[in-house]
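User: Here's a chain of 219 residues. Predict its fold as tokens.
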Amino acid sequence: MKTILIIDDDVHIGNMLSEALGQEGYNVLRAYSGTEAVMLLGEKRPDLILLDLMLPGLSGEEVLPKIKGIPVIVLSAKADAGSKVSLLLNGAQDYVTKPFDLGELLARIAVQLRNSAGIEGDSLIFEDLELNTALRTVYAAKNEVRLTRTEYAILKLLMQKPSQVYTKSQLLDKIAADTPDCTESSLKIHISNLRRKLREASGRDYIEAVWGIGFKLKS
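Assistant: Prediction complete.
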């Protein structure tokens, strides 16, 4: 089941969209401000986003650059061509002016989901950290990070479930197919090197050591 995130502080429009999307068989997530949307995207990865521009907290224009690898349809009362062109050039896949025809919007959603089906799952996103599984690239704060095979496998696993704490044995078991040479004694060194490389690229630490248990992404 495809998941669609509605980022809109208008409760009436959000409820209407939620009901219509539910009837079409979609799972629906809601965010009522730009700040809430960014926090939610740190934990969830929807298949498509419907983004209003006039939001409390961060505006839609501020939220858009933070969305990587997910198709975005902007829903806005701004009808001028300049706004549309700017947003389309800055990452939006489509722009629908309010008020909109629901049938047309559903059709546009279906088109974007169909277009993205071929690259679905290629990118994992956690805040300003992006890992592309097709290209095997990693960017932290928009800076490319060169990782070893083992470091990449560890990061990929952690980004697939950002809130989960992995024990050392779980990490070794799940990355064994990709890095059969990694051992319990070398795992700590690999994680230390990975944390250092990410910190040098972004100025922050993305991986948290949970005392006595293991490791997870640091929110």
